[in-house]
């Protein structure tokens, strides 16, 4: 499992090089597979670009085929049961939640039932 992401260099067994990051390398999903969104709809896995990984193997991603006011929508990708959660209008919104709460963003969006039962994040 990846523990960190390196901004430069080739990485190693625990540090993955940022330039090689893709969901297809993180999990076993097929190219062109549709990933359901918890609140409805779906997105092609090829349109998800991870920008923040967590210790559970999940990732916050840009949805690169969807933009609002010239900014990519972001969502939390559950890699164990491929599904998107916590759709946010843009990276700035995500960053504000992170800074204001000083807690994992996904935990500020959903209640304990979703966090524990659906995402298995304990």
UniProtKB/TrEMBL annotation:
InterPro entries: Knr4/Smi1-like_sf. It comes from the Bacteria. SUPFAM superfamilies: SMI1/KNR4-like. This is Cell wall assembly/cell proliferation coordinating protein, KNR4-like protein. It comes from Paenibacillus vortex V453.
